[in-house]
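S.,

Sequence below, as promised.
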Amino acid sequence: MYGRAEPRQQPGYACEECRKKKLRCDRQRPQCGACANAQIPCEVNDRRVPRGPKKGSIGALRSRIVALERRLSTSQLDDGLTADGHELGLASGSPVKENVSTQFPLPDWDISQQEQQQNCSLSLAWGPPEPTPHSPLLFPDISGVLPTIAASYPSPKQSPTSVGDIFIPDLAKADLIQLYFDRVHPVVPILHMSKTFKWINNVNSMGEPRQCLQYAIWTSATAFSSQFGGLQEAMYAKTRFMLDQLDLNGNDSLVCHIEHVQAWILITFYEFARTNYRRGWLSAGRVFRLVQFLRLYDLDGPRPLGLEGEDDPISLEEKRRTFWVAYCLDRFISVSEGAAMTLSEDVVFTRLPCLDGDFQRGLVPQESFLAETMSSAEMRPYAPLAECVILVTICSRALSHKQIYTIETLYSNIPLDFSSRHDWLDSMLTRRLNNLQLNYPSVTVAENPMIIFSYMVAHAAVIYLCRIVEALSRNDQNQSLVWEFQERGLWAAREIVRLAKEHEHLGYFRAHTFMPLTIYLSAARLAKHLEIRKGELEAKEIDDVERLLRASIEALQKLQSVNNLANYYLQLL
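The prediction came back faster than expected:
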């Protein structure tokens, strides 16, 4: 019962007659039982080819399948993406005028010989594309046709060959550039429109830094529109690869181009909005180091004889704006994380940016320095970017004020100069809010996303001062000041919620990338107010605060579809 089982077949080959009749041959020699009963000759072929595929045939079949899929993918792109005589797709054989592949050679990835012989790109999806709202614009459904690349930036070892083979028709390029100046430029105003169009159209003389900036412009424009949603990840992977190659190909020369910094700024804002916070933070660090390398913080300082006027006014203003956008980026991250600033305010010798209308017309008046503006009581209009710079500086000083207070408390029971610092920040913030309301009243606020954001930053600074004053309550001192700032913090949070609601008329695609930070500070302030004052509030007041808290959370939830920072701050609540 438990002995070795008999084998199902005898050793040897079945005869030809049994094979033909599909009988089980007993494989007896010289004649099997079936042939003996039928009285026919029993023939055995002992040189029959073994069953199963030959060695290596499976790999060959797979290569043929890959080649056929690639041909099918290319033919579908050729048939489905023809619009007004232009083709939009990813194809290595496309006549790319920029000659990017020669400027930025691709690494030698591990690709089989049969795949390398094909002159077309492989349609592979590295992950499901993120759903994007539909917009009936120039190309109605690009995302359903274009192959997608995963949201994570590929390393050279993981990157597909299509990273270096993006082809965009001239019509789509022009649309992306116009989209950039319509939606990206109002919140990142670092480029002069006419000058940018001039060097973009002069393809033959475009160097590597400007090629990187060109792709960064296209990439950042895709983040502010659902029209080119299918291009986002492919464009981002290509731009990051080009920037990394530009950094790796550099030498110890002290030459660095402003377009290099501008490209990294645009990609950093894209990463905060479309990838993840950590990647954006790391790229921001590279921006700060490039700013220091170019000494953009000292553009208007004294120059040695013979070196004055190296840049024309427009180029100099572009450098100023590049520095101030990086400066604001540094402050946004520091306020969000409570971390130290990288770009020190004490060494800044660069004038504030002028009004954007004057800048675009080529009229660049000399603005004052930041230190002069902070100490001046003059009420006059500044550029929206300059207003944002001033207000975010107050926020950063409030952060330093809190850090100094914490350190002084450790060494002394009575913090030194706390009241004078706090009063100065409070008066400065009040003066800037009055200046905003005087020069940008409520009628014009809704027309400019940067002005809306400046108002929100000002109210966020009030909330930050409220946090600092609340630390005094541990010692049961200055309770009247604590209650006063708690009420002001509640008012500031209410204003941020109102402005976020007002921004819906502009559309969240035009919102500043760091607007979720101000909404988060507002929601945190409302939740804190309910926690510490719930026993003192009436039922109507509690309902009002809870309604505002729900509205701020809803604003972050709506922003999630276009800005990943909103999701980041929702997780912190």
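Confidence is low (pLDDT under 50) at residues 80-163.

Coffee later?
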